[in-house]
């Protein structure tokens, strides 16, 4: 078995995970240029873990991508425990707790590169790693690409540096789509919560962007940025929802006068309420009530 080169040995300790008679894992490693490495490991059970470092030891920021060839493996990365999944792709930050175990006989392909290759903010990289799921449509493309790189390395390693740039492009796209999926999901969840909040506070005269943002722990700028353009201006949406609620109340709460309905739905000025109501529904509040008096 060839000794491991320094870049991997400094990051991860790889050893046999059982007493298989054929011994420890065997690997081949190829440079893809500028401290980017591709490793092919054949094993009969494998354990790959972080090397322990003294507290405060500086480490270069790197990304490790692992392609197992089957579903007989487990991964603990940071505070997350991941179950095996056939066709999976493992993307990890080796500076965090990393414990990968593969069982039985198999192979894995490992790509190791500096995060600087990705030209992405650290926050985006970490979010992309945390939110990566095997349902991401780019996962099978990246996985198959790395498997193919392993085959090329075994036959034509001199070609690998020419494939470094497209490989990084694929990884960058993978992490970006993963990070953006979370952002889109968070934005959708925020919108649902904001609309529910508005619905529950329509009778509050102080309901506005400032109070909505404050109660959701976001800035007014963030609120406006996430508010969908198809809903129109936020202030107009609130007025529209108040008018719709007031329109129903004119029928269901006939004991209230029109000014009382207006005040109960956030309109301090009954005249302003009447003007808005007519603009929205084509009739005055009084006329709407008369037209819907029932038998």
From TrEMBL:
Domain HTH araC/xylS-type, chain residue ranges per copy: 192-291
Keyword Transit peptide recorded: no
Domain of life of the native organism: Bacteria
Pfam families: HTH_18 (PF12833)
SUPFAM superfamilies: Homeodomain-like (SSF46689)
Record carries keyword Transferase: no
Keywords for the protein's UniProt record, in alphabetical order: DNA-binding, Transcription, Transcription regulation
Matches recorded under SMART domains: HTH_ARAC
GO molecular-function term, one example from the UniProt record: sequence-specific DNA binding
Extent of the signal sequence: none
Gene3D superfamilies given in the database record: Homeodomain-like
PANTHER family referenced in this protein's UniProt entry, alphabetically: ARAC SUBFAMILY (PTHR46796:SF6), HTH-TYPE TRANSCRIPTIONAL ACTIVATOR RHAS-RELATED (PTHR46796)
Protein name (record): Putative AraC family transcriptional regulator
Highest classification ranks of the organism: Bacteria, Bacillati, Actinomycetota, Actinomycetes, Mycobacteriales
